[in-house]
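User: Assemble these into one structure.

Assistant: Restating your components, then the assembled model:
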Amino acid sequence: MSTESTEFSFEMRNITKVFPGIIANNDITFQVRKQEVHALLGENGAGKSTLMSVLFGLYQPEHGEIIINGEKASIRNPNDANEYGIGMVHQHFKLVQNFTALQNIVLGVETTKNGFLDFAPARAKLNELTEHYQLKVDLDMLIEDMTVGMQQRVEILKMLYRENEILIFDEPTAVLTPQEVEELMKSIEGLVAEGKSIVFISHKLNEIMRIANRCTVLRSGKVTGTVDIKDTSKEELSEMMVGRKVLLAPDKTQVKPGEVLMSVRDLMVKGAKGHNDAVRGVSFDVRRGEILCIAGIDGNGQTELVYGLTGLRKIERGTVRFGDDDVTQKSIRYRNSRHLSHIPEDRHKHGLVLDYDISENMILQTYYEKPVSTRGIIDYRGAYEHADELIERYDVRCAQGARTRAGSLSGGNQQKVIVAREIERNSDVLIAVQPTRGMDVGAIEFIHKQLLRMREDGKGILLISLELEEVMNISDRILVMYEGEIVGELDPDKTDFQELGLYMAGAKRTPVSAA
Amino acid sequence: MAKKIFISPFMVTFVATIITIIIGLLIGLILLLLTSGNVALPAFKMIVTGGFGLTGLLNGIGRVLYYAVPIMMTGLSVGFALRTGIFNIGAPGQFLIGLYAGLFVAMHFSPQLGAYTWVFSILAGAACGGLWGLLQGVLQAYKNLNAIVCGIMLNYVSLFLVNMLIRSDHALYVGGQGWTAPVPSVGLLPSFNLNQIFTASAANSGIVFGVIVCVVAFIILKKTTAGFEMKACGLNRDAAQYAGVNVKKAAILAMLLAGIFAGLGGTMYHNGTMGQQYTLTDALRPEGFTGIPVALLGSNHPIAIIFSGLFIAYLEVGGLGMQSLGIPSEMVTIITSVTIFFCSFNLLFKKMYIRLIGKAFGEMI
Ligand SMILES: Nc1ncnc2c1ncn2[C@@H]1O[C@H](COP(=O)(O)OP(=O)(O)OP(=O)(O)O)[C@@H](O)[C@H]1O
Ligand SMILES: [Mg+2]
């Protein structure tokens, strides 16, 4: 076959990939045309990342073949994939934590001058790329100091830098703001126009409707079907995916907020490495029975605000109290055990010990208390039972029950483990940072219901989200954070995306009183 | 339809370890062929059979049991600390401090302690080794000293400290000949008749205590809240911190325990058999460093370390046997070290092995 005669950029035929206890990909055939954006949709754990990891050479399939430009390809590792012009933005970033963005991006394709590393050409090219694609990245910042959003942009930039022909985006938008998503969409259109083929994985149906030409839906490792986007709707897609109708906007009952649970006054927290003031004099209250949302573009101090509230970083000035308990100087353990649950922004950094199994992750904060342990001995049997129950209720898809290693779960299922743990700890206040990151529509619906139930039970929730739809749908009050300050308070019923956008961009601000 | 294979991670580790050992031995053979020409094959046989043919099987086993005790303990020390994410290069120092403390108690207090002297020697060795580990732990945690640098420096501090203490102690240092007086018999670990069962060897109850200590370490890691904390710190420090674990405290506790294990090794080695005399030198004893390959070969697992300790002792005994073939002792040391060195590459081979058999595995391990 000649290279010209085939309509497909690449084909994956009858791919089967087995993991211990589970068939992640079951006889999947997946064909992507030239100059096409092909969306891959499916529930958490359906096998999307696995399929793309097979294409990228990270996994070897038990069965099936890969055909690129009409010729059978053998891809044994990511280097082979690179040779074939395949690039991938990983759902869980593969970045070296103590390297800068620049070092990460050029890693493996370094330019040298007289045998020494020469970053100048790379830097010039990257400046061009960030300009062109509107990706805000500090090239000289260490990955470990970055917000998850910026890491996502580095990961995207890293692929764009390599000039591949086949581009795989595995949930690139899970932590991007709407504006960034729009820029990314434009970039993808540009790439397609240049002749590239794109695989786009996302749980956000709007994005798929907006950008894709066709969409393949997976369920439990099998293909449910491939549809043309112009002949389908969001509702049909979500039904194909979960096998039932999904409520895209949850019902919200009226709850009258009660007394103040958490009160923050004039809070100041430093940024990474203490260079700057990331949070500058923030004050607000969280009351019983309310979901207070902090909206804002990534990197405006939300991460540091949460670090300050939870005790992960020292508070420079101001106070945090729960009722009349001033915890400003108290340890993480103190806050954790008395008042606070916390769904962290970065599930791999803080949320999970990937090499622990689900049951161990479920007792991550409570392992030392009764009933999980007595006199220093952990009751693992009890922990297994507890975990099995939560797995059941939160529908965590796992191959080996409570003993499944957290690291082997799909991204959305890892998130479910964290959310289940934090909600079930039943603290008075829940700080939820991007709680539904990477979850499928069905799971999001469920988690939103849980959050609303907590609110009805008289808990207070501080929601930090980039997801404007989520913000509008479930919060009772919105505070907008811009450059470390609260610049406005909005009522989700009386505002719209546009006004919110203006506040978030710093174009509008109104004075806010704390109480 | 896809075949469903399930092989436990344990099996993978086990098979990888065996493959590693074979490769390590083959490299030893190549070295022998290159250096020792005509005696290479008999010498290799000596390594492989652990020198058992030389003095009889039972005696051979006894010697292995004797040599295994100190390296099992230092291996446990290194492996345990690694589970918490700390590379305890300070094990030789802790070993030496433990050795000295046990010796000190035996020499000075045997009249008062009588038949229980050996018990107190062991306790003193554990306590002082532990304190030495604790010191390193505190320096690392609160003064932010690099663990490697800190450990290496403390090793030398312990070496010269012990030399100094011995020199100024007339009960220990006899006649300025460069070594200490032998441990009085009440200071010796009971033999449990092992020296008789394994004819005329130095085997003693140390091996029994060593195994017990490994099992205790295993239980600490497996069942206790402290173990849960330490493992969490080793696997993901940020998550441990997020969960409210005091990561500094956990690291210090781990170093305390690691020090206790190494210190026990020192005492049980020196008070293990009759006639041991510590020679004052400017070099650290090798048992401490051998702990590193023992830990690696045992994948830092306390129970596996029992076996890797025995195995490396077996190689050492075989190595000693090679001297009878006229291979110079330096060469013997080099060959056994290289073999041991390659035997501890099991992590590398684990990956290769997974590739080999393991389409089904992915990155499971
Ligand atoms: N390395 C692994 N070892 C064992 N099982 C794995 C591994 N990677 C994935 N799995 C299992 O394979 C299944 C498919 O996972 P995959 O990551 O492909 O899902 P996904 O469709 O990308 O889901 P998500 O939307 O949550 O990212 C899951 O059940 C997961 O538990
Ligand atoms: Mg995925």
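The CA atoms of residues 185 and 211 of chain A lie 7 Å apart.
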